[in-house]
Specification:
- With about 375 residues, the chain is mainly beta.
- It has three domains: about 1-40, no CATH class; about 40-145, Beta Barrel (Lipocalin), CATH 2.40.128.30; about 180-365, Jelly Rolls (Sandwich).
- The protein is built from three helices and 23 strands.
- The chain has helices at about 10-20, 25-35, 320-325; strands at about 1-5, 35-40, 50-55, 60-70, 75-80, 85-95, 95-105, 110-120, 125-130, 135-145, 170-175, 180-185, 195-200, 215, 225-230, 250-260, 265-270, 295-300, 310-315, 335, 345, 360-365, 370.
- The strands form five sheets. The chain has an eight-stranded antiparallel β-barrel. Strands 12, 14, 16, 19, 21 and 22 form a six-stranded antiparallel sheet that branches.
- A hairpin with a 2-residue loop joins β5 and β6.
- It starts with a strand and ends with a strand.
Length: about 375
């Protein structure tokens, strides 16, 4: 059943109160003074799949993934964050309320995380309780289903008899809906080690700045410009965890964690090859955004100064990844600052895995063709 109340209280609060019984405050008011409304219940098929979870940790955004599946009529699954995958201890669907429980870590301390949220199509919004035993804190979270089982249908065409005077064969049609998948690439996660990021600096034109824990893009870094080059290699292919070369890109998001305020920064697709040991002089006095060394079309930009110690910054790079899937060379991106205040973020060499750059791609594979009826 689907739960809500005439007082506008979220369904997850109704479910908690019905489970715990009337106590004080909200629960007493809800069960005594409000009408509980009952509607259609969500089905297991509404939650099966992979979910991207965004947790608002008091201004700092954390990302995790939950995969929910049905095993012998029981909802189970896994939870992934900071490059580690854990089993979900409990998956419960009550009405339109999904509750997930997992033993995880926060700030390197073990916690029991209980996610409880309202299901609305392929989205969930709610609260997560982080209980370390000695203290408990609650945070808002949202989740989006980024992949789910295909509802493909297959049908065999009737046998065709060919011969003199026979009509031409029927046109081809797709035998099933496109199969959707999601892959992510982050240095040090699930064996992926093909991320390369480096800084090139006009003040040190012949010096390689590879393997730095942080990156700075600045129009005037100590008297000279600095740029950041970033590439995720070996992301296309036929192996598990890669993007099929003939895929249609549904979405592609580049995520970095910025930690120092700075002026607006632009992201451009690189058009020239470069090596990990590249220098400022090695690309002829830095990268020029001229449709020769880098595309003039921006893949995204920052909004200038950040207002907290760390901030998750996302760039929509779908068009660029589609170009790569269609056959263009993957040379990565260049970050170019528009002013004289450096914009800094953590690199793929940063010690904390969850702060390293990540590329996440959702794609659709081409359908198998068969004669139309």
């Amino acid at each position: 059943m689907q739960l809500a109340s005439s007082c506008g209280i979220p369904g997850r609060s109704v479910a908690r109160c019905l489970h715990r019984g009337p106590t004080i405050g909200l629960c007493a008011m809800l069960l005594v003074g409000c009408h509980v409304l009952v509607g259609a219940a969500a089905e297991p098929s509404d939650v099966i799949g992979k979910w991207k979870i965004r947790i608002d940790g008091g201004g700092e955004i954390y990302t995790a993934y939950a995969t929910v599946k049905l095993d012998a009529n029981t909802l189970t699954g896994s939870y992934e964050t900071e490059g580690r995958r854990r089993r979900l201890e409990s998956v419960e669907l009550s009405g339109d309320i999904l509750t997930l429980v997992v033993n995880t870590q926060r700030f390197s301390r073990p916690v029991v995380a209980t996610f409880s949220g309202d299901l609305n199509g392929d989205s969930i919004s709610g609260e997560v309780d982080m209980d370390s035993g000695s203290r408990s804190r609650s945070y808002d979270f949202t989740a989006t289903r980024i992949s789910k089982p295909s509802s493909a249908t297959t049908s065999q065409p009737a046998a065709q008899v060919s011969g003199p005077g026979s009509p031409p064969p029927p046109p081809m049609r797709s035998s099933q809906q496109p199969t959707q998948g999601t892959v992510s690439f982050r240095f040090g996660v699930e064996g992926y080690e093909k991320t390369v990021d480096t800084e090139i600096w006009a003040i040190a034109p012949s010096k390689s700045l590879l393997r730095q824990g942080t990156m700075t893009t600045d129009g005037n870094n100590g008297g000279g410009e600095s740029q950041v080059l970033l590439r995720f290699g070996d992301i296309l292919g036929d192996r598990s965890g890669q993007i099929p070369r003939d895929a249609r890109i549904v979405s592609a998001t580049l995520t970095v964690v910025a930690f120092d305020p700075g002026t607006t920064c632009y992201l451009h697709r690189l058009l020239i090859p470069w090596t990990p040991a590249v220098t400022w002089d090695g690309v002829a006095n830095g990268v020029s955004v001229d449709n020769i060394e880098a595309s003039k079309v921006r893949d995204g930009f920052t909004f200038g100064e950040i207002n907290m110690d760390k901030q998750l910054v996302e760039f929509n790079v779908s068009s660029t990844v589609q170009r790569w899937a269609d056959g263009d060379q993957n040379y990565g991106w260049v970050f170019v600052n528009t002013g004289g205040n450096g914009w800094d973020f953590y690199s793929s060499d940063w010690i904390e895995v969850e702060h390293r750059p990540m590329l996440e791609v959702t794609y659709e594979q081409r359908s198998i063709e068969e004669p139309a009826q």
